[in-house]
Amino acid sequence: MLTPKQKQLLLFVNERIEATGIPPSFDEMKEALDLKSKSGIHRLIMALEERGFIRRLPHRARALEVIRMPENRRAGFDGERRARGFMPTVIEGTKRAFEESLQAPFARDREDGGVQVPVMGRIAAGVPRSAIEDPSHALVMPPEFLSQGEHFALEVRGDSMIDAGIREGDTVILKRTANAESGEIVVALIDDEEATLKRLRRKGQSIALEPANQAFETRIFGPDRVKIQGKLVALLRRY
To answer: What's the whole-model pTM score?
Structure first.
């Protein structure tokens, strides 16, 4: 499965080759994906090569060859860009399901001392989708891992928070709250439609949602466009 940035780059490279017969330059790829440095493009190309989507040909300039395309390929790079607002999305599901799920109790004490925390779906530390699914199952957590209040869990997909130690396949535990301090990692609902796991930064009257991966960009919004749904309190990982 490709991350949204990987897919965006693959579509862009393929469309440029089909249109001109020549792969785009690193500068063109960097500009097309709105990245600040070429290092992010290098990482994306390496990931696409490792997954068997492209091949780099030795001793040639702009030596990229597209081997295959994703099965769920959309209309093209420009359509992909418009459909997402060129923004990473994070949580699979729908806004309605997310809001309804928030009305349910988030934790119940058990006789054995554990606390049930519902798993509400998958959150892309990569790219936003919409909101959160209905609860699929529950985790039993030791109470010392939780703060006061109600909690929920999300399964991580993608790598936009990898430099903060959050990897694909991890499960993040979040405290339900509408408020967070600058610098905390939160689930934020954008324009009542897209949800994302990012680090919150307050910049005057604006809110910045920062990834922890140079391949992804920081997004800045007005305060009326962002609603905090929860903040990170714990992380689970299987080896």
So the answer is: 0.54
Q: Of 5, 7, 101, 160, which one is the catalytic site residue?
A: 160
Which listed residue (5, 7, 175, 198) is catalytic? Answer: 198
| DSSP string across 102-121 | TTS---EE-TTS-EEEEEEE
Q: Which long-range contacts (CB under 8 A, 24 or more apart) does 98-102 make?
A: 98/130, 98/131, 98/132, 98/133, 98/189, 98/195, 98/229, 99/131, 100/134, 101/132, 101/133, 101/134, 101/135, 101/152, 102/176, 102/229
For the chain, helix (H) and strand (E) counts, in that order, are 5, 12
160 is a catalytic site residue: yes
Q: Average model confidence (pLDDT) for the chain? A: 76
pLDDT of residue 180: 94
pLDDT tens digits along 91-145:
433 344 444 444 444 344 445 567 888 887 776 554 444 445 455 678 888 888 8
